[in-house]
Amino acid sequence: MSRVRDIAIIVLAGVVLLSVVGAVALAKLGVSLPSWTNVGVEESALEGEYHQGRPVLSLSAVSSGEFQQKAEAYCADHVPLRNQALIGSAALQRQSAALMAALLGTDCYPTFFGSEYAYVGRADALIEIPGKKTDQLEKLSEFAEGLSDVADRYPGKRFVVLVPEHGPGSSINPLVSLVADPFASDEAIGVLAEGLSGHPNVFFGTDEGTYDTLGDYFHCYYRTDHHWNARGAASVYNAGAEKAGLPLFDYGEDVPVEGPAFSGSHARFGRDLVAEQPFDTSSRFSDVSIEFDDGTVIDGDDHAFFDGRGDLARYQFYECYYTHGVEYSGPGRGTALLVCDSYGYALGRIVAKQYETVHYREDLYFETTEGNLADRIEELDPDDVIIAAALSDYCSQTTRIPDYFE
Amino acid sequence: MVFSSSVFLFAFMPLSLAVYFLLPWRSLRNVWLLLVSLVFYAWGEPVYVALMVFSIIANWGFALGIDRCGQEARSAGKLLLVCAVAVNLLLIAFFKYEAFLAENVNACIGAAAVPNLELPLPIGISFYTLQALSYVIDVYRGEVHPQRNVLYLGMYVACFPQLIAGPIVRYQTIEDQVLNRRETLDGFACGLRLFIVGLSKKVLLANVVAVLATDMLARGGSDIGAIGAWAGLVAFSFQILFDFSGYSDMAIGLGKMFGFSYLRNFNYPYLSKSGTEFWRRWHMSLGSFFRDYVYIPLGGNRCSVPRWVFNIFVVWFLTGLWHGAAWHFVIWGLFYGVLLVAEKLFLLKAVRKLPAIAQHLYGIVVFLFGWLLFWAEDMGQFTGLLWALVGGYGVSGASTAWELFAWTYVPVFLVCAVASTPVVPYVRSRLLQWGTGEGPSGPFMKVDLPAEKRFGTNGLCSFDLSGVGDPAKRRALECVAFGVDLALLALLILSVASVASGSFNPFIYFRF
C-alpha cells in the first residue's frame, strides 16, 4: 500500500511541476483551450500585461542576466490557471485579515498581505489605502501657480479645472480615519482652488464635500476602480460648467450596460474580484463623432472596444467602454482643448456634446514631449481649456513635465 | 537560482531529475549532477562558476597531495594542508570580506589606503568553502579517503541541493554515497514529501511573514511603536526560521530524491530553554563544523577557564562573521559567546530552577534579542527598535494600530507557532503507538536534544506502518497517510501558485 502512495504522490506532484512544460507543448501543438486555462494565452487582462515571450539564448543575454530574468518571467507567466493562482493566493491571505477584522469589529481590511487596497465591507467596495502626506500640497500649489500664469497670458480664453473627489484621501473614505496623517483630498482640493482663485478666466469645478453617504459616493464612482463613472463625470463637469457659464450636460437617468460585471483596477491590483454592474447615462451621443489617431472615425454611441473583448471587458470596462480619440466633433459651437488623464475617457463625449470641436490631449498622464500647455493653445487656438484629472495626477504634473506651464 | 523560483520548480527540477534517472550508470549520473549543479550556480552568477571550478580543482589537488604525503612525510602534508586552508580562506576573505576590510581599515587610518572593490558576493561561497575545508582537513586527519575523480569531488562541492544555503554536508557524510548510494522509490517519495514541506515553509510561511517583518523593521521604532516592533521582530524570527529550515528541508529532500542522505540541520530551535540549547538545535551543521574544526582544535573546554573563554569567543566571533561581512553580525555572534559562557558558568543553573514555562520564555527572549542584533545594521536602528519594544514610542508610534496591519497576521503567527513545534512528529508517533499497541513515548514538548546519531533524516516525512499488525488499524492508518499526502499536494499547489503569482520572495542567504 505504501508503494501505491509513493507512486501516487510522485505522479501527482510531477503533473504539477511539469504543468508549464505541458502547457507550452500544448500551445505549440496548436491545441485550443479556454482562455481561463492560460494555455496559449499571450496576455493577461487581469494583470494588464502581455506574457513574457520565449527568451532568446545568447552568451550576452546570459552574462547580463537578461536571459535568466526573462526565463523566470516566461515560466511564471505560462503556469496553467495563473489567474486562479493569483486570485487564490490573495484570497487565502485575505481570510486571515478578514477573520481578525471580524474579531476586532472592523469591516475594513487589506485584500492581501502587503496590499495597497482594502476591502470596505459596508460598501462592498475596494479602496486604495490612503498614503501619508508628503509634499503633495506644495506640488498642487506649483500646479495652480503654473496654470494661473498661462491663464493670465490668455485672458480671452476660459480655463475650467475639474477635480473629482475620488481618491484614497477622500473625506468620505472610511479608511482616512484609520490612518495617521493621511494625504486628505479636501485639504488638497482647497489648496488647488485657492491657488487658482483671483483669476477671472479660471473656473474651478469639484464634487468635493457633496456626498453624504458612501452610497451616494459610489453612485458617481466605481466601487472597484479608480475612475468616475458617467454620472460622476457629468456631475463634476456641470459643477465647473455652471461657474464658467458653459452649457450643462443633461445626464438623464442611469441605464445598465449589458455585458460582464466590472472588476476594475482596485479589484485587479487588490486581487479581490468584487464585481459591479456598470451603468451609463440615458443621453445619447450619436451626434458626437470621435476620431482616433489612425484616422478612424466612430460615432459617440459606438463602444467598439468594449464589444466582444471577453476578459478585457470584464477587467478594463472603463478603458474599453469609454472610447477616447484625439479629436471630437459635436453639435455645439466653438472649440475646446480637453487636457486630462484617463478621467477624460468618460468626460470626452460629454464635453464634445457642448462644442463643435474638442481636441483631446492626455497630457496629465503621459510624459509628452510635444510641447507645453501654451504650445497646445497656440497650435489649436481653443475657446476653452478644460482640465480634468485625478488629484494624484494634478500633484505629479510639474514633476512629470517640469516645463508644462512655461 | 533559488528553489522557490518558477524556473527551478517548473523546468530545472523536473528536467534534472528526469535526465538523471534516464542515465544508466552511476558515473554518468554523478557527472550529470555536476553539470546541472554548475548550470544552477551559473544561473545567478555566470562569472563566478570559474571561482567554483577553481576551488574544486585546487581542493582536489591539495587532498591528493596530502594523501600522497601520508604518514611518512607528515610535515609536507601539514604544509599542504596549511596551503589548502589558506587558499580557501583567502578566496572567501577576498570575495566576501574585502569591502568590509577596506571600509574598516580606511576608517581607522583616515585614508583610502585599501581600495574598496565592491565585489558582488559569490552566492553560497560561505557554504561550499566550509565543505571544501572539511574535506581537505578530513583527508589530512585520515578520516576520509581522497576522491581521485575530480568530477566526483566537483559533484560533492557543487551539488546544487545544498549549494547555496546548506546544510553544510561534510564529505565523510556522503563519501560512501558518491558511488554506492541507492535511489529507491521509497526514498524518492520521502524526499519529495520533505521537499514539499520545505517549500511550503519557505513560500507559505517565511515569505508571508517577511512582508510584515520587512515593512515594520525598516520603518524604524518611532513610526511603529511597541506593536509594530514586537510584530516585526516576531515576524522576522519566524521568517528566518522557516526560510532557513525550509530551505534545508528542500535540500535534504532533493538529496534524498537523488539518493543522498544528508544530516538534519534544524531541530525545533524555538523550543529551546537556553542559548546553549538553541545552538544545539539551530543550523546544526554549522555548529558542528565550528566545534570540530575550530573549537576542539583550539583546545575546546579541556583547558584553563581563560583559555576556554578565549576559545569560545574565537568560535562565536567567526560564527558571527561567517553570517555576513558587517559588525552587527560579529556583535550578534559575540552576544551568543558571552551568553554561552555565562550560561555555562552560572546562568543555566539559575534558569534550570525556574518552571519549564519560564525557561522557555527565557529561551524565547534570548533568540528574539539575538535576532534584533542580527537584523539591525547600525546602532541607530538597534536602539530605535529596542526603545520601541519597551514602549518608548507608545503603542503604535506615529502610526495607527490599524495601518500597521500587524493584527492581520495573528492567524499566520499562530500557524507559525504551531509549525515551529514538533506537533507533526508527535501526532505521527501517537498514531503509530495506537497502531502497534505500544505505550506512550513522552510528553509533547519533551523533544530530546539530538545526539549525532539522531541527526539522520530517514525518519522525516515517512510513515512506516510495517509494525502495525492489526489489519483494521492498519487500514485506518493507511487512510490517514493518504490524507496526509493529499494535504501535501494541496500545499504544493498553494506554494506553486504563490511562486507563480510573484509574491514577495526575499532571498536572505545572499549575505551568508
Oligomer: heterodimer
Overall geometry of chain A? globular
Number of helices of chain B: 20
**Parts with pLDDT < 50 across at least 5 consecutive residues of chain A:** none
* N-to-C order of helices and strands of chain B: HHHHHHHHHHHHHHHHHHHH
Relative strand content of chain B:
under 5%
Mean of residue pLDDT values of chain B: 90
Question: Spans of chain B of 5+ residues with little confidence (pLDDT < 50)?
Answer: 448-452
Helix content of chain B: 55-70%
Count all strands of chain B and give the number: 0
Major sheet of chain B: size, sense and barrel closure?
Answer: none
Largest interface: A-B, 55 and 58 residues
Rg of chain B, Å, rounded: 24 Å
Kindly estimate the percentage of residues of chain A that lie in beta strands according to DSSP: 5-15%
Helix and strand content put the structural class of chain B at mainly alpha
By secondary-structure content and strand pairing, the structural class of chain A works out as alpha/beta
Q: What is the distance, rounded to the nearest whole angstrom, between the alpha carbons of the first and last residues of chain A?
A: 80 Å
Quick one: how many beta strands of chain A?
15
